[in-house]
Write a structure and sequence with these properties.
The chain is α/β, with parallel strands linked by helices. Helices cover 43% and strands 19% of the residues. The chain has 2 domains: 75 residues, Orthogonal Bundle (Arc Repressor Mutant, subunit A), CATH 1.10.10; 113 residues, 3-Layer(aba) Sandwich (Rossmann fold), CATH 3.40.50.720. It is built from 9 helices and 11 strands. It is elongated.
């Protein structure tokens, strides 16, 4: 089965499984089962088995999954067995917080360049990064072969920024701007908008 034939909802659950496996390994476990994973994650064991079956046989009936093996297989499927460079566009309050967040590097995602259009910010330091002019972004992205970018700019600037970095070779965008982006079919976008999640939750409140 081609990777393009696997539903995106299945791919979205794989990092959740990987995180659970990493926690189990930290706790000293060597073997787990779809039932145990399901209890931890609130996902049916049948769904977990079906999701994993898209990528081959990782366990045996009645014996479960060897955590170390399954974890490494999922890391290869998700292509996180390697390190990825990330360009961060936007050095305001949110962008600055993202640049300082250490959790990305711990999982193999390294912010290596930070860009902004404000003359007041260009040249300033954010942690170990010197903010570069946004006009330098295309050249840096091309020279370093960067495929992933984070956008943390105002909504009215996000599409323009996306067009610029996609033309430079970016194929995956984590978008913090509260707007949907128009991108080519081969560019993947994930949206991080806390307000949308808050609005979803308030539906359930009495």
């Amino acid at each position: 089965m081609s990777s393009h034939d696997i539903p995106d909802i299945v791919i979205s659950r794989l990092p959740v499984y990987l995180r659970a496996l990493e926690r189990l390994a930290q706790e000293g476990h060597e073997v787990t089962s779809s039932h145990e994973l399901g209890k931890r994650l609130g996902i049916s064991s049948a769904q977990i088995r079906k999701d994993l079956s898209h990528f081959g046989g990782f366990g045996k009936q009645g014996t479960g999954y060897r955590i170390g093996f399954l974890r490494e297989q999922l890391r290869q499927v998700l292509k996180v067995e390697r390190d990825w460079e990330i360009a961060l566009i936007g050095a305001g309050d949110l962008g600055s917080a993202v640049a300082r967040y250490r959790g990305f590097a711990e999982r193999g995602f390294h912010v290596t360049s930070v860009f902004d259009s404000s003359p007041d910010k260009i040249g300033r330091q954010i942690g170990s990064f010197k903010i570069q002019p946004i006009t330098d972004a295309p050249q840096v992205i091309r020279e370093r072969g960067i495929k992933i970018a984070m956008i943390a700019v105002p909504a009215e600037k996000a599409q323009e920024v996306a067009d610029m970095i996609i033309a430079a070779g970016v194929k995956a965008i984590l978008n913090y701007a509260p707007i949907n982006l128009n991108v080519p079919p081969d560019v993947h976008v994930q949206y991080i908008d806390p307000v949308l999640h808050l609005q979803r939750m308030t539906y359930y409140l009495v």
